[in-house]
Amino acid sequence: MAVRHYTLDFKLSAPADIPATVRGVQPIFQEQEMTETLHDTEGHGYLATFIGKNGRFAVLRVHSHGLVTFDLQCCEGDDATQVDNLLNALEKKMKTLFHGNIKRSKRLPALRRGDKVDCYWPTADGRLVEYDIDEVVYEEDSVYQNIKILHSRQFGNILILNGDVNLAESDLAYTQAIMGSGKESYAGKEVLILGGGDGGILCEVVKLKPKMITMLVIDGCRKHMRKTCGNVLDNLKGDCYEVLVEDCVPVLKKFAQEGRTFDYVINDLTAVPISTAPEEDSTWEFLRLILDLSIKVLRSTGKYFTQGNCANLTEALSQYEELLGRLSCPVDFSKELVCVPSYMELWVFYTVWKK
Amino acid sequence: MAVRHYTLDFKLSAPADIPATVRGVQPIFQEQEMTETLHDTEGHGYLATFIGKNGRFAVLRVHSHGLVTFDLQCCEGDDATQVDNLLNALEKKMKTLFHGNIKRSKRLPALRRGDKVDCYWPTADGRLVEYDIDEVVYEEDSVYQNIKILHSRQFGNILILNGDVNLAESDLAYTQAIMGSGKESYAGKEVLILGGGDGGILCEVVKLKPKMITMLVIDGCRKHMRKTCGNVLDNLKGDCYEVLVEDCVPVLKKFAQEGRTFDYVINDLTAVPISTAPEEDSTWEFLRLILDLSIKVLRSTGKYFTQGNCANLTEALSQYEELLGRLSCPVDFSKELVCVPSYMELWVFYTVWKK
Question: In terms of CB atoms within 10 Å, which end of chain B has fewer, N or C?
Fold first, then answer.
């Protein structure tokens, strides 16, 4: 069971002539054998609903101030040609009725409501975007989060955590950005990766012959993101890497106590923290704690890489940059704007180093 | 005058108990002083509409086969907190009513209908995507097409031709791809650019010290796409380039007759042809004609670059590749998949050369 929801809107320079508009479009609904119900809007223009065959339902509103909206809901399996004809007839008629008065007419791609596969995964800045998802590859609720892997025709498998697009197989740009955009030499270096359960970073850093990579991760997705992680997650220990499936905070604290340090710390934990102990009462406190501990285990010549957020969330980014100024160890930072294919928004990445 | 259109959908494992659902949610509408109208759907489940204050209008449908959809239309300037409260109350109540029976619940970012600035510019493969447009910079209907330049917070100015996103100031990736992705040496070469009215290609090729660039273009946008075109369009003639504001076909025919040839031909004409003479009766015929003429003026060692379309339009791309096999001069080709930031879909670029 699914519904296609079509919209057709006219923005006018001057208010529409309601009686003329209604007279003009009514024959179209009559021809389609749709039964009209007129509603009293208490002074907010004309509003009529129409019930047709096959469960078709339409709403026509002529607002008092120059906007006409039309909605048509059709059930899955309805005759697409008939539906198209109705919309075409209505659009054509309205273009005639409103001739010379149209600022804009807009007929959007139909909303797909209740489809077997959900294609709408809003951006971090809250915009509605439709993906070309054709298959649910994997879905599970772990103790920490809802994990989905969906297949996109163009982006390949996409990892979605708690409804946020996390990484797709098309997104090498993300991995490259959070590794310093190719400007670093990892050969012979000691690297700490926080998070990165998709294996993308590990897979790319391994290729660069580091001395040792330590990765702290809660969960893996080695099965369904092969293009991203290759085979590096098949074993938790390799020649130059070790994956510890453990909570970051206690391990980082232990490293800091032991005086263990790294040339690179790459923080790829999701923006929403996976686990917060009572001492960290908010997302920001968690971020600050991880940052502080990361800088503690960073060598004086080392670099800390992390993702920020989408370019449009300027307030959140400013808050993060302010936080960088308040760490127990003074740091400097630079940032870079990167286009990650499956995100449909530009993403900010940070490089942080000790002053 | 604008409308926010909110949706809230529940996909259920088993059909909802209609009387229990209606009993459960009715108090919420009553509390909001919304007047219910029950509709006869002729066997297609429960359908009620509600009219509330400030022109609010809601539709609740409980479909027979496990889908519940809710629509709420509110006029611009309505009390956002009240609207949010209504949606929250409804979502919470439904989650209780359908507990254990919910496959998925979805509350999308509100559709912005009739807004001053239109933010919906569907992708080439017909998906609904919302842009972060905050200003209409320029709008005009030329003889050939509707030209819009809209400002996006993250992508900068975006050129939109006949409703298709053409190029944004963020899209250097497009220009680089259609120039051969940095693998070509333009120094001392003769280059022909078809289209490219935004000036991006001209601006980038000029930097590479070619012998001469000839550009055939209908229209320019030198004012509002400065980040893309720099100052190269301020004069139609420079040290190493000449811009001819003319129709491509007759000029290409003249070049072919004169035996004039080029090292590189870059075809950046829009996918929809701007002008078709009677002899070319379709888009494809126009494409074929341009291609044939371009290959005629291409040196035997030369390369022809062009955009294809989005990765998902596999049939159109196959048709184009078939066409490449039927040119009067035999050619080979390669293609590349490129992420152009403002497109929100992967784009295919072609390199074509003489066999």
Answer: C
The yes-or-no answer on residue A17 being catalytic is no
User: A9–B114: do the CB atoms touch at under 8 Å?
Assistant: yes
CATH 3.40.50.150 domain extents, chain B: 172-354
C-alpha closest to that of B121 among B161, B156, B153? B161
CB-CB under 8 Å, A127 with B127: no
Partners of residue A59 in chain B, C-beta under 8 Å: 49, 57, 59
CATH 3.40.50.150 fits A172-354, yes or no: yes
**What is the residue-level pLDDT of chain A in tens, covering all 355 positions?**
899 999 999 999 999 999 999 999 999 999 999 999 999 998 999 999 999 999 999 999 999 989 999 999 999 999 999 999 999 999 999 999 999 999 999 999 999 999 999 999 999 999 999 999 999 999 988 777 788 999 999 999 999 988 999 999 999 999 999 999 999 999 999 999 998 878 889 999 999 999 999 999 866 555 566 666 667 677 788 889 999 888 889 999 999 999 999 999 999 986 533 334 444 457 788 888 899 999 999 999 999 999 999 999 888 888 889 889 989 899 999 999 999 999 999 999 999 999 9
Chain position carrying tokens 């400007």: A183
Please name the fold of domain B3-111: Double Stranded RNA Binding Domain (3.30.160)
pTM of the predicted protein model:
0.92
Start and end residues for every CATH 3.30.160.110 domain found in chain B: 3-111
CATH entry 3.40.140.20 includes domain A116-168? no
- Show residues of chain B in contact with A2, CB under 8 Å: 67
Q: Which of A1, A7, A312 faces B113 most closely, judged by CB atoms?
A: A7
Across the interface, do B126 and A109 touch by the CB < 8 Å criterion?
A: yes
Q: Which ranges in chain A are annotated with CATH 2.30.140.10?
A: 116-168
- Which residues on B lie below 8 Å from A154 (Cβ)? 310-312, 345-346
Question: What type of residue sits at position B225?
Answer: M
* DSSP of A43-86: SS-EEEEEE-GGG-EEEEEE-TTSEEEEEEEEETTS-HHHHHHH
C-alpha torsion B241→B245→B250→B254, nearest 10: -30
ipTM over 0.85: yes
Q: Which of A9, A263, A268, A332 is catalytic?
A: A268
Instruction: Please count the helices (runs of H) and the strands (runs of E) in chain A.
Output: 8, 18
